[in-house]
Hints:
Blueprint lengths: L1 E11 L3 E4 L1 H4 L6 H8 L3 E4 L6 H16 L8 E5 L10 H8 L6 E5 L5 H14 L5 E9 L17 E12 L8 E9 L7 E3 L12 E3 L1 H22 L9 E4 L4 H10 L11 H4 L6 H11 L8 E8 L3 E8 L1
Parallel strand pairs: 4-5, 4-6, 11-12
Antiparallel strand pairs: 1-7, 2-3, 6-7, 8-13, 9-10, 12-13
Helix pairs in contact: 3-4, 6-7
Bound molecules: oxa(dethia)-CoA.
Amino acid sequence: xxxxxxxxxxxxxxxxxxxxxxxxxxxxxxxxxxxxxxxxxxxxxxxxxxxxxxxxxxxxxxxxxxxxxxxxxxxxxxxxxxxxxxxxxxxxxxxxxxxxxxxxxxxxxxxxxxxxxxxxxxxxxxxxxxxxxxxxxxxxxxxxxxxxxxxxxxxxxxxxxxxxxxxxxxxxxxxxxxxxxxxxxxxxxxxxxxxxxxxxxxxxxxxxxxxxxxxxxxxxxxxxxxxxxxxxxxxxxxxxxxxxxxxxxxxxxxxxxxxxxxxxxxxxxxxxxxxxxxxxxxxxxxxxxxxxxxxxxxxxxxxxxxxxxxxxxxxxxxxxxxx
Length: 323
Ligand code: UT7
């Protein structure tokens, strides 16, 4: 059975680290409130002129290096982002050019914070259907450029960064012992558009706009839907929380991460947590957490991982994979 196996990963974070205390200078907020309500202690912000494609390229290069693979041998690049350099062309084609690739195909996926899970699931489908043998899946965001700096309920939450995973086709035995993607579960419900959105866009206001969120409502959906989608993906291959070595969750809020782990019966010792240092980096958060977990030795070859994420749309989903 053809499987899409992860053979490398990498991440990039902009140099500038912004601690919670930064926001006390211009907002009615406190270091303590931000940490207590979200688990976030600091985040990275892109430098002036530093774009999503630049960060995505850096993460992609590290993923290629860790796999010992040449960019020229990659068939496709899928980038999950809601903060592209330009309205078009896609960030994926920009990264393709930056990597010196002249063949293959590249496109972006937009499912906001769930973007990487959607991209990974699509990459898996392309690999198992034989349309590509090697795919770079990148999550890259500059959410700092979407913030309304007067809105204390949102601007303290987000950060910038990028992560990448390189998938390669391999022959598996067709059991859950196989390495690679074992199951995916994708969902969306456009009725919830108004609880998390950007109030600008090309065909409406012709502006970039700012992120708007009803935090409490999103929180409620997240706690319910993340465990649900993770359970659904695991159930497709007759697994459950007890089989999971690591949850690699979307890093929006430590309270959501804890509540989801609890619902899945997975102790926090088996959850990768980077929200303290990265904040919410939207589509970059899962690959950033994955790459950080591999780098610090937590995630080992053969471990069973479940990733889950939810974002604007609402769109949410999960992927079960053996590393
Ligand atoms: O990645 C996409 C998915 N996004 C998420 O998953 C985010 C989900 N939502 C959340 O993480 C949380 O809802 C927040 C962290 C955004 C907010 O936490 P909360 O515990 O739900 O707080 P709240 O919105 O109910 O606000 C509680 C109080 C309010 O004051 P009053 O009305 O009780 O007087 C807010 O005005 O906290 C106030 N508040 C703040 N206070 C200090 C809101 N933001 C801040 C702030 N500093 N930065």
